[in-house]
Queue: 2 jobs
Job 1
Amino acid sequence: MSETEHEAAAGGTAGAGPTDGTGAGRRRLGVGMVGYAFMGAAHSQGWRTVGRVFALPVDARLAAVCGRDGAAVRAAADRLGWAAADRLGWAAAETDWRALIARDDVDLVDICTPGDSHAEIAIAALDAGKHVLCEKPLANTVEEAEAMAAAAERAAARGQVAMVGFNYRRVPALALARRMVAEGRLGTLRHVRLTYLQDWLVDPAFPLTWRLRKDRAGSGALGDLGAHIVDLAQYVTGEAVAGVSALTETFVRERPLLEGTSTGITAAGVAGQAGTDGQAGVAGQTGADGGGQVRVGAGLVTVDDAAVFTARFPSGALATFEATRFAAGRKNALRLELNGSDGSLAFDLERLNELFFHDHTEPADSSGFRRILVTEPGHPYLEAWWPPGHGLGYEHTFVHQARDLLHAIATGTAPEPSFADGLSVQRVLAAVEESAAKNAVYTPVGGRPHARVNSRAETGAHIA
Ligand SMILES: NC(=O)c1ccc[n+]([C@@H]2O[C@H](COP(=O)([O-])OP(=O)(O)OC[C@H]3O[C@@H](n4cnc5c(N)ncnc54)[C@H](O)[C@@H]3O)[C@@H](O)[C@H]2O)c1
């Protein structure tokens, strides 16, 4: 461990504790990242940029990145900024995540791998005294998520921090929406409406990648896209989903199996741009045609293609959720609308600098939805960016995520979303699967007290 990193270690943990915040003798925190395809590229961009935009009492140092193929991970280290000019690429690359965790120059482990490895890596890193950032969904099962939340709680007592990568909380317009709801601008909440629509599985020739396998991904559109909108609904409203009625469907049950595609990607082409490591990466290069790879047969899709569910909130508000990769023409349409007694808010990720607000207390003849351009210095995260009107994009959410995590570590405060928040989302996903298996029977979300749950929700009396 370097001298500065020794300074950063407090009480045997990695970099917890307050700083003077002056910039002089700023602490350095070594980041080690596992996985370097789609999310790996996005997180790398966040780590590279955060210290150049936000004034922070801790500097992130890109220490090392981990994959499974030596040559590919070295190339990724080079491409994504992990191999600093004064170090050879090999010094910044590991092929075993256990070796990454064991490195003295790694204080924070950033997990950008598929869900089947989240629990093992996160718990090992926390038990080794490291801070952890873990991509969503937190895990593939509630049991794994419970073990991770317990490990995070133990680690918190030692001053460590664990955060889940629900990056959409860091879209300034959505952080503003939360602020406006908390300020009571909508009055009593009646409707919470979220959809997350993509279309990259419409073509039945799209290959069977890890995202279509339950053993790797846990679930399909539900865990991938549904997890985001459940977290957002809970974040923006400040309430926990009490219970759900759900339907799920797998529209295309068999897909081409390509040579080497035992793991896989996100939307076609995206991970390909980010680079691959010879296993997950194979599918990363593919479009629907598999990018010229050899078809070796067909395989069963073992996850949902779409999930649709209604839900109750403890306050009595009703919610609807829809997550699908079959919405032809919709690329990344995460949409939210809230209706309250005093007004409404509407947001679309494909226009992410804008938040629409209707103030229902204004005279009817002049009221209506108006566009708030969320680029003012007083808006969340905007104080560090460009003059008003010079908008932000998807990648900025990862810079904001890095900022919030470093801030939590430097100040010794609990991060949001915590592993407990990730567990709470996991419980909603499990309730959705349970309800869908019973053809939409209302299913309370397990494992949490429902302080203000509408009594009908408890009894399931509203079931159609
Ligand atoms: N926050 C978001 O908006 C968002 C978007 C996409 C994906 N994700 C999440 O990020 C995670 C990764 O998704 P992705 O799209 O980046 O996938 P991907 O297939 O593009 O990349 C996965 C990476 O993990 C590596 N990997 C897999 N198993 C490994 C192991 N045992 N050891 C070392 N490396 C290993 C692969 O080689 C690859 O580099 C998933 O949990 C996914 O749900 C989040």
Note: The longest helix spans residues 419-437.
Job 2
Amino acid sequence: MRKEARRGKVLVSGLIVLFCAPVTLSGDERTWIYAVLIYTGCSVAFACLVVIMWSDPGVVKRSPERCFPQPKSIIEALSESKGVNKIQGNVKVGEHVFCGRCLVWRPAGTKVHHCSICNRCVYGFDHHCGVFGRCIAAGNIRPFGLIIMMGFATFWTWLVFLSSELLWDLGFQGGYGEVIASVALATFCTWLLLLIIVKACCVCPHKQ
Ligand SMILES: [Zn+2]
Ligand SMILES: [Zn+2]
């Protein structure tokens, strides 16, 4: 997971440098609006990264009240020396569910799932993110959504800026034609990237 978390930090920091470098180096007054948008997007994304990395995703905390009394079937399985890893599934007792892997009672009436990578139960679990090395759950799903939105929005703005610079150098200087061509090219590339990412994603196999 540490390797995963490092990957996430390097990826976001690398993208921030990649997006900020051209507008910073350009120093062109004509494109100041792109600089403002890109710096804003990167600042928000960085703040989201900090929250995702260092906040509690919503782990069901272990405590004597949360762990005991254990259901009979769990006590039997443990006494037979099956070991915690051999106990499969959850034990339902009335309204309450006991997780047979991390051995805690899940609070009744809440959406809790077990993450098989972190080996813990988490409130509002959505998936385990392989990029950030964190469960994405109730505590961090908003900054996670925002960092993705900022990523695409900043990527799009960065492409519009690059297209505009390219068209300017090719002689299409000023006018609506240059703006429309830049926006169209950037939108097409962003849509293509989005399509590739959606195709590559699948249902989280770690949700139990
Ligand atoms: Zn669990
Ligand atoms: Zn996890």
Note: The chain has two domains: 2-55+140-200, 64-129.
